[in-house]
Amino acid sequence: MEDGWQAFLLETEVTRMIGSASDDWRLSNVNKNYTICASYPPTVIVPKSVDDEVLCQSAEFRQHNRFPVLSYYHKHSGNVIMRSSQPMTGPNGKRCRADEQLLNSSLGKSGRGFIIDTRQVSHAKNAQARGGGVEPDVNYSMWKRIHQPIERRQYLHESLIKLIEACIDPSMNSDKWLSRLESSNWLANVKDVLTCACFVAQCVDKDNYSILVHGSEGLDSTLQVTSLSQMILDHDCRTVRGFEALIEREWLQMGHPFQSRCAKSAFAFTKQKFEAPVFLLFLDCVWQIWQQFPCSFEFNEDFLLMLSEHAYSSPYGTFLCNNEQERQKFKLSSRTTSLWSYINIPEVIGNYINPLYQPHQAVLWPSVAPQSLCLWSGLFLRFQVDPSPQSDAWDEITKVKEQEKQLVSKASRLRRQLYLLEKEAIDTEVLLPAVPCFTNIPEMTPQ
Length: 447
Known about the structure:
18 helices, alpha/beta, two-stranded antiparallel ribbon
């Protein structure tokens, strides 16, 4: 069995992530022993031109010391997606030259970038009064700030509770159901996250901009956007192992507090202070893209459902604790088994393979129009709607694809046999070699 705890270490993933850009980026152990940032991993990817002292100064300028680090390198354009927490400019407009140097050093050949703030403008201003804030335009002249509001985690659970209450109410008629679905705002939250992720992907792929994404803490909406942007841009993230690596790299290693956010079941009506279905909303967004491009993902819907279950209740240690420091403190790698170890067993992973998968490297551009987004019934209506018809349909598709595979293999063998028989017949002069036939093309008569 593969050791899932060692499967996606950043040290082994960095070559695949940055490719030929190793001259511009480096691994830094500045956070060794978690002395700089408690929620960051010991090793991060940063510009090679920036030393660790600059990183330390930048960390002091960012909330919870989450300084800007590399999330994704776009090999085609050389642009990057960075992530961090908000700057602590405060009401007096505090400045940090090291932070400015770090961000400017991360710009690609275009020399320009967008700072995507996932907060509303009013929330950012309120944060500034409490010591937080935004990057001042005058100090970050090579960057342009844009607000792409995503609902704060405090309101996500209320939205989920309203949705669950509507889903399990057997007395509703169609009009009441649609009204309560709309009032829950869950699909509006899905739309906001997807819209922001598509905007980031467009800036990187088409408009030639590098990106920094942050909200307040950089633990929730920031990770949703960076993860979905990579799924849109990078075909590798749509494979089973690529998606596992994405979750490990963007969510687990970067400190999304699963222990706090997933303290109770997603179907629970009571909530704790730090509880929020942030990861569940991310999986819903992935499903929305999956159902629009069903042939572009190696994994099926059951794979996403399985992850949603293990995030809240799991016999494996992958989603335990709030960050890498806590996992190391409690020695989870030696006391528990990684979920990836189990999933990647050949007999298990076969249950999560999409029979319609056709690998391609094209960028996906999902629609965020209201008509294109729908309720994830496989998750939210799993106890109300009989899944048997859909399950039977997928079983039939799997059988047809397996039969197609066998027929293609048989046709290949028959072509090979035919070639060998023809060759033998020609060698024994039973057949004459084929002579190319040229069609006589009449000459054109000048007009």
